[in-house]
Amino acid sequence: MNDEDDMTIEKTILCIGAGYVGGPTMAMIAAQCPGCRVTVVDINPARIAAWNSDNLPIYEPGLDELVRAARGRNLFFSTEIERGIRENEIIFVSVNTPTKTFGLGAGMAADLQYWEKTARQILEFSDSSKIVIEKSTLPVKTALAMERILNCRDNGIRFDVLSNPEFLAEGTAVRDLEHPDRILIGSRETDNGLKARQTLVDIYASWVPTGKILTSNIWSSELSKLVSNAFLAQRISSINAISALCEKADADVVEVSRAVGMDSRIGPKFLNASIGFGGSCFRKDILNLVYLCRNYGLDAVADYWESVVQINDYQQERFIRNMLGAMFNTLTGKRICLWGFAFKANTGDTRESPAIFIARRLLEEQAEIVVSDPKALENARADLVDAKGQIRYVEDPLLAAEGCHAIALLTEWEIYRSLDFPKIFESMAKPAFIFDGRNILDHRRCFEIGFNVYPVGKPPLTHF
Ligand code: NAD
Ligand code: UGA
User: Fold this and answer.
1) pLDDT digits (tens, 9 = 90+) for 95-137
2) At a CB cut-off of 8 Å and minimum separation 6, what does 53 contact?
3) Which atom of ligand 2 sits closest to the CA of residue 343?
4) Residue 309 CB: number of other CB atoms within 10 A?
5) Residue 7 pLDDT
6) What pLDDT sits at residue 1?
């Protein structure tokens, strides 16, 4: 008798898409709801094999333990999509929805091909009624398209479509899933829609306080996800725009953001000036919002949100221009070490990482690059595969900096704060520079050791 036979199965859940969202989210549901049998399927067999191994396909603090606790008990990873659809009553769809790269809306709109393919598969393989849940981030009114595809056959099988966007952030996914600020569930306000919504509320209520489970109409739910990401990104672009002004006005952006953030109406989070936001979602979701607004003829609204992305591009280019200016307007032949390649700390994910842009710009300036990162070197190699031979990859940050003219700190990994800076300084070419793209180092101390220090949004500390 296996563990599963010991339990009464109350609900059978499938998740299509075993990525950064599907894997951790389903592991949390399985861990918190022992009465649910959760299966996660994907078209990518290597990803599924990794989920079934000791070497999970993504790095996320606490995820190994979470998966290990439930896998084989009530959590399963499989490539059998057709069987999964047949056997499960609740289906989450968590496939990727990247920015379209072709045709109408290229570079702006969401590419819904994976999403639509999934809808058609659900229709084809279902022989009983299902609740289908949008977990992916989607343009408003996608649920309508899903409903139209799913309910196009008149064969007595019902599909109720819900929207349940995910708000986890990478690097803190397990904590965010266990203690979410809110769970949002949107549905049609019909009897069947409300019944389906209650089924999903009951699942989350196993561990999330009911006051944090919000229900809404389905379009509000879809839109709230895009707007949440847009607001978060807007705060970063706002402080990054101010960082440029601070550099001109001899103000210190950290002091400004502390002073501003202590206003309880504004709050302190997401006000860290940086090299710009990265990650697979902010850019794509804002562009998606911009595209929607333009489609509805709301050009002023579209322009407003598009400027958040424009400031982000500006901030990345500004970082390179500051490096060039500080290093005597030429980087040709100079060796520059990048500390960090992941788009943020505590993840190996490099999707849309500003480090990709910065590495490419440095290569354009004919610099030599050494990339260092505790978790993201494999992804960095893949991102820069076309520049093979021009870049060295060294995990140890001290070894990576040896012989370099400059260090550019791009990811706020905790390990970078407490390295042996006198030793690093000794090993570098002189004059030695540090460009702290995250403002996490002790700038005064680095300066006293001998470095020329260029933070973001603060006056530089130089020996010239
Ligand atoms: P991902 O690329 O890591 O994972 C998506 C998975 O779906 C891939 O493994 C892919 O092989 C699989 N897939 C694609 N088409 C399929 C099909 N027809 N059948 C089966 N599997 C299929 O993406 P992700 O980061 O998990 O993001 C998924 C969605 O969640 C996106 O819409 C994203 O905007 C949203 N989201 C992401 C995050 C995040 O932190 N990454 C947070 C919140 C929301
Ligand atoms: C973000 C949101 O925080 C999640 O709520 C959302 O679910 C997710 O996008 C998504 O939809 O994919 P994530 O991109 O994983 O999560 O990470 P964040 O912590 O939001 O950081 C995004 C980027 O902004 C990173 O590059 C980070 O370094 C940067 N950032 C963040 C700053 O530059 N300054 C800050 O003050 C905060």
Assistant:
1) 999 999 999 999 999 999 999 999 999 999 999 999 999 999 9
2) none
3) 26
4) 20
5) 59
6) 37
| Residue to substitute in 79, 281, 283, 379 for testing ligand 1 pocket (most ligand atoms within 8 angstroms of CB) | 281
Q: Is the CB of 288 inside a 6 Å radius of any atom of ligand 2? A: no
Q: Is 281 a catalytic residue?
A: yes
Please tell me the number of the ligand nearest to residue 96's CA.
Answer: 1
181 pLDDT band (50/70/90 cuts)?
Answer: very high
**Closest residue CA from atom 29 of ligand 2:** 277
Nearest to 97 by CA among 340, 288, 314, 263: 288
Q: Ligand 1: which of 48, 95, 132 to mutate, most ligand atoms within 8 Å of CB?
A: 95
Work out the pLDDT band at 416, boundaries 50, 70, 90: very high
Ligand 1 binding pocket includes 281 (Cβ within 6 Å): yes
* CB 241 less than 6 A from any atom of ligand 2: no
* Ligand 2 atom 18: residue of nearest CA: 169
305 CA to middle of ligand 2, Å?
A: 17
Q: Is 118 in the pocket of ligand 1 (CB under 6 A)?
A: yes
Tokens read off for 143: 């649920």
| Cα gap 339→437, rounded to integer Å | 10
Token output for 174: 């397990």
For residue 153, pLDDT over 90 is answered with no
pLDDT by residue (tens digit) across 10-62? Answer: 899 999 999 999 999 999 999 999 999 999 999 999 999 999 999 999 999 99
Tell which one of 97, 228, 274 to mutate to probe ligand 2, the residue whose CB is within 8 A of the most ligand atoms. Answer: 274
Whole-number Cα distances in Å, 4 to 27, 29, 70, 76, 354: 16, 16, 11, 11, 45
Q: Residues 116-147, buried b or exposed e (16+ Cβ, 10 A)?
A: eebbebbbeebeeebbbbbbbbbbbebbebbb
Model pLDDT, residue 260: 98
Smallest CA-to-CA distance from 240 within 335, 349, 322 is with 322
Cβ–ligand 2 contact at 229 (below 6 Å):
yes
- Closest residue by Cα to residue 434 from 464, 392, 390, 404: 404
For residue 178, how far is the Cα from the chain centroid? 18
Token pair for 299: 């050009």
Measured in whole angstroms, the distance separating CA 167 from the mean position of its chain's CA atoms is: 10
